[in-house]
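Human: Here is a favour to ask of a fellow structure person. Comparing notes only helps if you start from a blank page. I am asking you to supply a protein in sequence and structure-token form. Write it directly below this note and I will take it from there.

Assistant:
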Amino acid sequence: SSGINAEWPLRPGNQASLTDNAGKLQCLRNVQELLINKDPVLLDNMLLEIMQFHRDSSADVRKFVLGFIEEVCRKDMLLLPKCIDTIVTLLSDPNLRVERRVIQVITALYRDMLLWQVPQRKIPQDMTEAWVHLSHLKGFILEALDAENEGIRTHAIKFIEVLVLCQSLHPNPPEDGSEVCINLIPPDHVTLDSSSLKAEGGVAFQSLVNFTTTQTITPMNLMTSIGSLTNVAKQRPNYLGPVVQVFESLHANLPPTLSKSQVSSVRKQLKLHATNLFKIPSPFTARLAGLLSDLGATSSEIERIRPKITTESTKRLSDDGDLEKRKSTDCDSALIPLL
């Protein structure tokens, strides 16, 4: 293609632009536009040439490579095996901005790879190996909750949120394949073991609970964790009880390292997210009403947003109540020591 010949960074005529990071990035962006949106048939052949830039001295160029990988794999997941080694290498990049970007890309690709696998009955060997690599990377990110850098920990929290949502039971699994959940994985799937994934999701949720209730957590990480736990509870009712318990514990026992203004900010966030959960008909309405009252909500404010009980929500309340009485394998609140 004449477009590729004109814009391709490794062509002799374009060598001068490679000495300038801004020019290099613009050239690479032009190539990305050509390969993904104009000449996608060339993508498979040209991919490895773009991958070479993951060794570039510029952190911005290495971040570009990661963004390119994310776009490429979303367009054609079968290209992931050609990209996985680069992802593995960049996860240990010395630049924190690059490392944070890697976690973001893995978060997106982990969900998309699961989504791709669910309907497959036969999976190529290279895709199976790529999934093994991606699953291995998952372990590194789960351990990143203990990382020294606050930003790395923040991205690890968001990854765990996605993992828990993907690896848990959905109350009403979508039929259009737009979401991943344990319900949609056939028991005889060729690569995915729903029981193991479900158990791993429960362990990941527990690790986020433990992290959220540590006395040394930073305000930013705490805010992020509260938001992620709320997102999980809103979409996966089995986790609502434990999340309410976390909120109650935080209200009673915020980290002593927080300043007065930070305590005020966290309580505002707790009130906001508790309000969102209160609006959902559940067996925990009374506890959430009590928590909101403790956080400063008036009786009239609480009554104004109290969920209306319909026939459908009554049935769900009954189902959730039964589920709460059973030892749910998805998440057992008795396993969550908060204090």
About this structure: The chain has 15 helices and no strands. Confidence is low (pLDDT under 50) at residues 321-339. The longest helix spans residues 96-117.
